[in-house]
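Let's sit down with a protein and look at its sequence and fold side by side. Once you have written the record down, we can walk along the chain together.
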Amino acid sequence: TDTGSQKDRMVAEEEWLRKWETGNIWFHKERGHPLLQKYLDVLLNGRSGLRIFFPLCGKAVEMKWLADMGHSVVGVEVSEKALKEYFVEHSLPFCEEPIPEISGAKKLQTTSGNIALYCCSIYDLSSSIVGKFDGVWDRGALVAVNPCDRQRYVSLMITLMEKNSSYLLVTVSYDPNKHKGPPFYVPESEIKSLFG
């Protein structure tokens, strides 16, 4: 369960913005994640018309896939460039509006209303702003969060979840002494401790 030299590693918001600006987005996947397809039934649990949250969503193609199934998708991403590219790449007309509760933040939403993406720090969100969710698809958020912020991140996620919600989490396993992250190594014991 040793996280090696990663424990004190910090990635500033500016570094993530720079990755999007320069196109250094090795973490973005052009195709839907096979684990979401494999475990979709676990996420949906026989339910339809769910509200599904994508933390640190980037341009995740799975957002449109789930929206096309009739679910409402909400994401949060610090890079406005990523969000605008997402709508353009999927030919989705959208509008944008400021989020009064968060200075400088905005919400970009499809004109049909089924995909709403918040451009701000995830830590600025609360259930009073975005509501609560029936499901969460975390394909790269927990492993991107600075190790010192994991408890804060998970505490926020828990406040955004409905009582019977499903949380699908994808992590990576490797020797943290050989890679500084992100993605960061999060041992299973820590995941159990964080989520309870």
